[in-house]
Write a structure and sequence with these properties.
It is globular, with a radius of gyration of 25 Å. The chain has a single domain, classed as Beta Barrel (Maltoporin, Chain A). By secondary structure, it is mostly beta strands. It has six helices and 38 strands. The termini are far apart. Strand 36 and strand 37 form a beta hairpin.
Length: about 650
């Protein structure tokens, strides 16, 4: 029955393609406006009608100088963050409770998730290098391919194409002997732009915490780290029809890994992470079409060491891990005469990993074909897309996405709906880890459905309110989980799970007659993500209906703020309800409050901004991950110099 419906869908899709190529009308623009934010939709994002997408632009990002992506997402959204300790510790992000390996992170549209673990360490991503962070909660399978059940985050920099020659220097000092600095330069005019960010930070991470396993108050030791690197963006526009982009990203982090709760505190574990990324892109616009070529190369290197005692001359464990990725894509979009737009894309991804515990170096080559069609009228937009990924000896399902957005002219509402088939390939660790891996794993697969409504209202010149509400449902079949098999733990296709929930957003802004601006943002996520079936004799009864691990039922983010002349003040509140880290094993709920104040100092030559912030105001003891304590109250003072 399913195959029959798929045949009908494919026939209908290509019939629409034929109609689109023989219709008449006018060109379709590439820009939509949501509230006060203008979004340039490039490539396949143009066909994501019905999807829920949030944009964090430079107006918000500058509130968190030298922050990593993990800091930004924790302050700006109720997204589920898992941090393994103090500043500089590894951190992952989970969208809609799907898990880090089912939440894609992309740089300029190129996926950067690790091929070995299937996830991204968001503590390694400096937010100051990007002027737009886009969160696509819907994560269409045809747009992102493997691993987007939870959604996707795209990091990008858009040039301003104006004459500029500016420099920014930021210096800050924070608790736990933490020092941060970055230098940024921008040079450009209407044909080119060069923007580079150079960053360095270090911290001892020596905070005090209560070890509830040992029932003692301890000071964190062997938790220091230092990070340095740069990200350089190049943009060149020799004519109105040709745009070239390129980026170079180099990042190094040296860290000691402190002991977890309940264990010997004077351990000696270290980890060095080094990554080099580069991409180039060329785009040519014709009278009614556009051709885009993108090529990217990523090279990552990691060394992990462990000694049983700091004085040991021999390592208990020493691992060198190297991964490489090559990405290429060719995209051709045709703005047909009429209400139809067509997009065709070919992608190639080569991933290779040299890991001692794999015994052999492993690689995979994935070829992808994508085709999308969009129908646009004044009140309605409909998009349909299909995707086929090809990997030798792996059965990958045919993917599709359908989306619609409808804007009645008599209402200040936009209704949207989308449906997509998705999948996730097993990671290299799942497949090839010596003695533990399982080379017979199948890809996960399932469908996602979503319905939402948005209203953007203005009341005169003083009030603006943005409301957004949506409900979603996703199924994951052949879900991969690590389960005990005899004396070992192995990944198995043993679970069927459901991700479902409700998301609500309210953004309100009010400006008084005295130019005082009040802003507040409330984001609430309700999750009922649970295991439907767990195919092992020992755990099925207990696991069936159990909430997925580390997924709270309630996530809330509240951020009120006030701005008057040169002063900005704000508070950020993040609440996560109780979470499970095992069958009926609970981490308690927590609510964390942060605050900041910014004071701009006007100066004709070198204006500056003084910034003071307090994190975890109530000095709460809490965890994102079991046995990994997080810092108590901390302070940071910084100053940013602006030279034009």
């Amino acid at each position: 029955m399913k195959s029959m419906y798929m045949k009908y869908f494919i026939r209908l899709f290509f019939l629409l393609q034929f109609i689109g190529m023989h219709s008449s009308g006018q060109e379709v623009a590439d820009t939509i406006v949501l509230g006060e934010v203008t979004i340039f939709q490039a490539h396949i994002e143009y066909f994501s009608d019905g999807a829920k997408q949030e944009m964090l632009d430079s107006s918000f990002l500058h509130l968190l100088p030298l922050s990593t992506l993990s800091d930004v997402l924790q302050h700006a959204t109720p997204a589920l963050l898992k941090s393994y300790g103090s500043a500089g510790a590894a951190a992952t992000i989970s969208l809609r409770g799907a898990g880090a390996s089912r939440s894609q992170v992309l740089w300029e549209g190129v996926p950067i998730n690790s091929s070995t673990m299937g996830q991204s360490d968001v503590s390694l991503i400096p937010s100051t290098s990007f002027n737009t962070i886009a969160i696509d909660h819907s994560g269409a399978g045809t747009q992102y391919g493997s691993g987007s059940f939870g959604g996707a985050i795209n990091l990008s920099h858009s040039p301003r194409w104006k004459k500029q020659n500016s420099y920014v220097l930021h210096l800050s000092n924070a608790s736990f002997q933490t020092y941060n600095t970055y230098f940024q330069h921008t040079l450009g005019n209407n044909t080119y732009e060069l923007k580079g960010t150079y960053f360095f930070d270090k911290s001892q991470g020596n905070f005090t915490y209560f070890d509830y396993i040992l029932q003692d108050t301890l000071t964190r030791i062997n938790a220091d780290h230092n990070t340095y690197g740069f990200l350089q963006n190049f943009n060149y526009k020799p004519s109105n029809s040709i745009v070239c982009k390129a980026g170079v990203w180099y990042h190094v982090k040296n860290a000691h890994l402190p002991a977890i709760m309940g264990s010997y505190p004077y351990n000696h574990e270290t980890q060095l992470d080094s990554t080099f990324k580069v991409f180039v892109q060329a785009q040519k616009t014709f009278s009614s079409s556009m051709l885009t070529f993108t090529n990217a190369w990523f090279d990552s290197y990691q060394i992990y060491t462990k000694k049983l005692r700091p004085t040991d001359s021999v390592y208990f464990s020493y691992n060198e891990i190297r991964t490489k990725q090559l990405y290429s894509s060719l995209k051709y979009r045709v703005y047909q005469l009429g209400p139809f737009t067509n997009h065709t894309e070919f992608q190639y991804m080569h991933s290779a990993a040299d890991v001692p515990d794999y015994e052999l170096e492993h690689a995979e080559n994935i070829y992808s074909f994508i085709n999308a069609l969009r129908f646009t009228r004044s009140k309605i937009r409909i998009s349909a897309s299909v995707r086929k990924d090809i990997l030798v000896d792996t059965k990958i399902p045919f993917l599709y996405t359908l989306g619609v957005s409808y804007h009645p002219s008599t209402l200040l509402l936009v209704f949207r709906a989308t449906s997509s088939k998705k999948y996730r390939r097993p990671t290299f660790n799942d497949l090839y880890w010596r003695e533990w891996g399982n080379p017979d794993l199948l890809p996960e697969y399932g469908t996602s459905h979503e319905v939402g409504v948005q209203s953007n209202m203005r009341f005169g010149k003083t009030h603006s309110v943005l409301l957004d509400a949506c409900t979603f449902y996703s199924s994951i079949n052949d879900m991969i989980m690590w389960v005990p098999v005899g004396a070992l733990w192995r990944p198995m296709n043993v679970s069927q799970s459901v991700l479902q929930g409700f998301e609500f957003r309210v953004h309100h802004s009010y400006q008084t007659a005295h130019n005082i601006t009040f802003q507040q943002k409330i984001d609430v996520d309700l999750h009922y993500s649970h295991i439907v079936q767990f195919d092992t004799d020992a755990n099925n009864d207990l696991a069936r209906g159990h909430q997925l691990y580390y997924v709270p039922r309630v996530s809330l983010n509240y951020a009120p703020g006030i701005e008057y002349k040169q002063v900005k003040f704000g508070v950020m509140c993040n609440h996560q309800s109780k979470r499970y880290y095992g069958i009926n094993k609970i981490l308690p709920a927590y609510t964390v409050f942060n605050a900041y104040i910014h004071i701009s100092v006007a100066d004709e030559k070198i204006p500056s901004v003084m910034k003071f912030s307090v994190k975890n105001i109530t000095n709460l003891s809490y965890e994102h991950v079991r046995s990994y304590p997080l810092p108590g109250r901390s302070f940071e003072f910084g100053i940013t110099f602006l030279i034009n």
